[in-house]
């Protein structure tokens, strides 16, 4: 019972990080409320404290526009794959 698998360690660490994240979010909210009540400017919570999870992952930053040429190319490729399936 005193041994953990790597999967169990991973889930344990993810849970620990989530618990710490909630605490940091609470700290940021309290700081934001104090700063906003003493400021004439409109602030955002990220102006007070910025965390790594506030950053958008690179995959979400990329442009997701698909041109009509891409659509046609992918349709042709799909038809080619479809013809190979018995």
Question: Gap between N and C termini, in Å?
Answer: 51 Å
Number of helices: 4
Helicity level: 55-70%
The gross shape turns out to be flat
Structure summary, number of beta strands: 0
Helix-strand category: mainly alpha
Molecular structure report:
There is one protein chain. The protein has 86 residues and is an all-alpha fold. The protein has one domain (6-84). The protein has 4 helices and no strands. The chain has helices spanning 6-37, 45-48, 58-61, 68-84. The model has no long low-confidence stretch (mean pLDDT 85).
Features:
mainly alpha; single chain; 86 residues
List the helices and strands and how they pair.
Elements: H1 6-37, H2 45-48, H3 58-61, H4 68-84
In short:
The protein has 86 residues and is mostly helical.
């Amino acid at each position: 019972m005193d041994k953990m698998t790597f999967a169990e360690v991973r889930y344990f660490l993810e849970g620990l990080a989530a618990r710490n994240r909630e605490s940091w979010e609470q700290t940021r909210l309290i700081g934001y409320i104090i700063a906003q009540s003493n400021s004439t400017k409109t602030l955002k919570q990220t102006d007070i404290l910025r965390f790594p999870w506030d950053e958008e992952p690179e995959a979400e930053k990329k442009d997701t526009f698909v041109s009509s040429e891409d659509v046609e190319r992918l349709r042709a490729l799909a038809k080619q794959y479809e013809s190979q399936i018995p």
